[in-house]
Amino acid sequence: MQAFVTGCAGFIGSHLTDRLLANGCAVVGFDNFSTGQRRFLEQAQRHSRFHLVEGDLLDMPALQAAMQGSDCVFHLAANADVRHGPAFPRRDLEQNTLGTSNVLEAMRINGIGRIAFASTGSVYGEAAIFPTPEDAPFPVQTSLYGASKLAAEGLIAAYCEGFGLQSWIFRFVSILGERYSHGHVFDFCRQLREHPQWLRVLGDGRQRKSYLYIQDCLDAILLATSRAAARINIFNLGADAYCEVNESIAWIGSALNVTPQITYTGGQRGWIGDNPFIFLDTARIRALGWRPRVGIEAGVRRTVAYLRENAWVLDSRACLS
Amino acid sequence: MQAFVTGCAGFIGSHLTDRLLANGCAVVGFDNFSTGQRRFLEQAQRHSRFHLVEGDLLDMPALQAAMQGSDCVFHLAANADVRHGPAFPRRDLEQNTLGTSNVLEAMRINGIGRIAFASTGSVYGEAAIFPTPEDAPFPVQTSLYGASKLAAEGLIAAYCEGFGLQSWIFRFVSILGERYSHGHVFDFCRQLREHPQWLRVLGDGRQRKSYLYIQDCLDAILLATSRAAARINIFNLGADAYCEVNESIAWIGSALNVTPQITYTGGQRGWIGDNPFIFLDTARIRALGWRPRVGIEAGVRRTVAYLRENAWVLDSRACLS
Q1: Residue A249 reports pLDDT greater than 80
Q2: Which of A158, A300, B132, B182 could cross-link to B144 by cystine, CB 3.0-4.6 Å?
Q3: A201-217: per-residue pLDDT in tens?
Q4: Residue B161: which of A93, A148, A272 has the nearest Cβ?
Q5: With contact defined as beta carbons under 8 Å apart, do B66 and B27 qualify?
Q6: What domains does chain B contain, in order, with CATH numbers?
């Protein structure tokens, strides 16, 4: 089987590429390296079954050509930054919604019938039910990022209905682990490297968030794509717990052996579109036999250990701070 | 007050323009006349308070310039054709999603804070609950049209959250009445004009659909935009009843005084993305005091009478048949 992986040089995409190669698949990886890292592909590049295509999802001819001959698509390429949406109001639409439209068109033209898609728990907006199930009440969007992923989900479902594609849509909480390269643990580690004495926290630190360790996330994706056989398969992916931002600060401080003074910018939300509580109901994926193996605290600690040993990652996305 | 109406030459847009002018507003109408009709604006053109700008939503500089000085936006311009989505897979995305993104950007740049948007009951996909409330279970999209409108809703909500806009989002059933220019009543009237002896019906004729008369629809829009004061206001609009396609055929036949032989293409769905049952819960708009005054049968009969007296409308959209 040949898998086409968009965003293959990203945090999740590079790990998925490694796993698919280890499982015996051929992988064509596609990335524009806007946020992807060449070093994340060092392991993949050692495989003869890996082929890298440097290109942009918005370059339709390049995408269409690169996809030719693949059997399925793992579509992970995205602008994954929720926080800076209002500063770049077109970016989520272009990278996430139009990018997904191009992926679907390229699949249709190439006769590729299966797509797995990295969506987000952000599509639930500020949910009314916790843990939030996949069929939660029709949500109202609170971020351009969530809206762009919701739009992508809608396009995928409509292509399944209109053109007979089959899809697996995964709504993630934040993912932790090696190669983690954006989000609040990243932000805190970078701050504490620059100034171990103090830490600036967006919001009141009481935000409750769920997380998932990268390999648990990949276990779920690979299980679902092999076992779930509906036309459109939608799964929440997350731990069966959540933590307060303040708890994660304590773990990070302990892992880095620092005790910073903390200042809070205040308010329930750290930024526009921040969600004060994210906790997804994962009964659906659990019914397939999946369980996460790494808890939230362990995931945070592994992430911090990785960032400490790979400080270059902390320097790599300074443009977004 | 100066209102900016996109799609001002369309079925609903032209009636809304007439109503706003009658209510004393100034109206800047914007239309690319891809499906809009100049004759629908004859009444509006007699008003000195009406100003028409011929332009396309995808022409951002033109849109931005035309919007300058308006106080609110009624965004009705869209590709309103559900049925032909798969034949033109980009059209809904461009006309509806990107068009809405441009409207929102033009509003942001011009400092305009209020938008009313014509969404659709199609965003519920194949709903699990009837009548379907606004907070129905998170739907799965079944058409590119529905997906494009859902994406537009998401963008609007995210702009409200991110930039302080206020919005009124209306999820319509099919609208009937004078100037009606697409949909199954239109299709049947055109067929019966060409060949009164027979009628070809897509699907099994058992599809159950709800409808709403145009002036009832406008009453609801104008009431909601003046009374509902949340940041994001979402309303279903529809009659408190539905009919079978076969019932509507009987009314149309009776109104036209023909008794055609009917052939069915078969199947529950007339086309890909057709919805076998549409019936919306309108308790939310009713709580503001709104009631529809014209029932479904009367609405169908008025529509048929209009199309009989204005046969030019039946000829105007032949490209879409």
Answers
A1: yes
A2: A158
A3: 999 999 999 999 999 99
A4: A272
A5: no
A6: 2-175+211-237 (3.40.50.720), 177-210+241-278+295-320 (3.90.25.10)
